[in-house]
Amino acid sequence: MFVLGNFIVAVARIIDMxxxxxxxxxxxxxxxxxxxxxxxxxVVRLLYQVTEPLLARVRRWIPFRGMGIDIxxxxxxxxxxxxxxxxxxxxxxxxxxxx
Length: 99
Prior knowledge:
The chain is mostly helical and 99 residues long.
């Protein structure tokens, strides 16, 4: 059973690293939106392609769109923090129960 526990620990760590990476990508995207970068820059295009599908879904759900402020990155960051605080530790505890 220890193999299953080790596998779940590995999955939890990968999920945690992926969520951290995506969190930083969202933060960089939000900061770039303040400076109006060149839309033809390959890095900017990559950031937009990676983040826009999720941001667009969240924007559809948000009823508040006042004063030109986009709060969808904040909502996504809150969801990421929730997943890192709930899902990852839960998987780690589950893995330790198999050891």
